Amino acid sequence: MLEPTVLGVYGSSDTGKTTLIVDLVKQLTSEGYKVATIKRTNKAISLDTEEKDTWRHHKAGATLTVFSSSSETDFLMNKPMNTFEMIQRITDFDYYDIVLIEGADEPHIKKIQVGTGMERDNTICRYENNVDDVIRIIKEEVQKKTRLQKLRITVNGKNIPLTEFPEEFITNTLEGMLRSLKGVDCIDTVTIQLKK
User: Fewer Cβ neighbours under 10 Å: the N or C end of the chain?
Assistant: First the structure.
């Protein structure tokens, strides 16, 4: 199973980041893409409400509380996570073609800038009421990811998301070691299972 294409959306407050993400999700899901989203903020806020049952569970010491109703299930973890951890949890739940991160700041994540301001590392386009261009760029990124991704690693039953550099490094290392083995002429697919 392929890893999702991860793209960030950033910009100053009130520039339309959320509106853009909503438009992108509507368009992409209508075309059959499966999309997950992450909203990042530097503010110390919580969706949990003081004195509600889930808040009381956390207050008692639970580090994970699950709220489930007939319409949704919410997982409330009482700790911050970095983007890598969040994406890993998302891919544990299900397969997604695309993960859009509102507020992405990590240099290795490709990003879409909304509004003016300082351009962040790995910005691939700027949104200027050109949603069709942004959709086209996102689709190109998904196609590139599908063509480039060769390696999938699962550790203890959990899928490990890989960015381009570690995937390329591990793939080249494995291919180099395997080519040195007697009887290995051509490498199309490799399966390695390690049990400790």
Answer: C
